[in-house]
Design brief:
291 residues, mainly alpha
Length: 291
């Protein structure tokens, strides 16, 4: 009888904890979703200006989106969007290759200066990238990469140049792949590249997806380096600089709702990339080594 009463009390406490936990998670979800909901509501608002007396728009319209892409005489959002997309895609490809190549080399190969290189990379990774901003700018200026369309090339170089130093997470994943797989492939006559391409890469889809997403997000969301390199030439702005310009005092009244629409548009490629690649997160190493 006492055991039954104790068991019932434990079950009630467990249910209460579960209910409280779900309530807490629901509240946190609402707090997290509120800014997204607010920016969407603002992008659909028909009245101009940045100050409103009501949370919900009095007039719902999609004209902010159409005007964002059609009225380009002053602020050319489509051009900024295209600039950012090109820079982000090229940087994503280069950075992903660098990270995977360096992390695989550090994980699977043994050579002189391997540990000192890893220590130096770890130390350099502790310093924020913008500390080198002025030096990087003058190096690019000395190479004539700060004029015209070369500014976009300079952005790609800046974002992808140091990607190889961010190999620690990918290296940790490669370390979990049994070396017996590589050894078996070597016995069959496979080269290092063939082992990497035909065996390691299919087993490493989660970390590849992570690397792709982070490599894409860095140039897509960066403001500091893009602002320094682009300078005052609005033709080579990225979306981060363009949206920031919409909030300047001479534009904010007419462009505030379009700024909200642009913020929604900026989130679409990121969401599409994540939705397309999320199924690879669940793939692990099951079946990699037979008994």
């Amino acid at each position: 009888m006492k055991n039954s009463t104790a068991r019932g009390s434990y079950q009630r406490k467990k249910k209460l904890r579960t209910v409280l936990m779900h309530i807490l998670l629901a509240v946190l979800a609402l707090i997290w979703l509120f800014p997204i909901f607010w920016i969407i509501m603002t992008s659909l608002r028909g009245e101009p200006g940045s100050y409103f007396t009501t949370f919900f728009p009095k007039k719902v319209t999609f004209s902010n989106y159409t005007r964002l892409f059609t009225e380009t005489d002053i602020l050319n959002f489509p051009r900024w969007f295209a600039n950012t997309l090109v820079v982000a895609c090229v940087t994503c490809v280069i950075s992903t290759f660098f990270v995977l190549a360096v992390s695989y080399s550090m994980s699977r190969m043994r050579f002189k200066m391997r540990k000192p290189f890893m220590n130096v990379a770890l130390v350099l990774g502790m310093f924020p990238a913008f500390m080198s901003m002025i030096a990087v700018y003058y190096i690019l200026k000395g190479l004539n990469l700060t004029e015209g369309v070369m500014k976009l090339v300079a952005l790609v170089l800046v974002y992808s140049a140091s990607a190889g130093l961010t190999f620690y997470i990918a290296k940790g994943f490669f370390d979990t792949i049994p070396k017996s797989v590589d050894e078996a492939a070597m016995i069959d006559g496979a080269s290092r590249f063939k082992i990497f391409y035909r065996i390691t890469v299919p087993l490493s889809k989660p970390i590849i997806v992570y690397t792709i997403i982070t490599s894409f997000l860095a140039p897509w969301l960066d403001f500091i380096f893009a602002r320094v390199i682009a300078g005052a030439d609005s033709r080579y702005y990225t979306v981060a600089i363009g949206l920031w310009n919409m909030l300047e005092k001479e534009y904010v009244y007419h462009y505030y709702t379009r700024f909200a629409a642009g913020s929604v548009c900026v989130a679409i490629p990121i969401a599409a990339l994540f939705v397309f690649t999320q199924r690879y997160y669940a793939e692990g190493l099951s079946g990699a080594v037979k008994g």
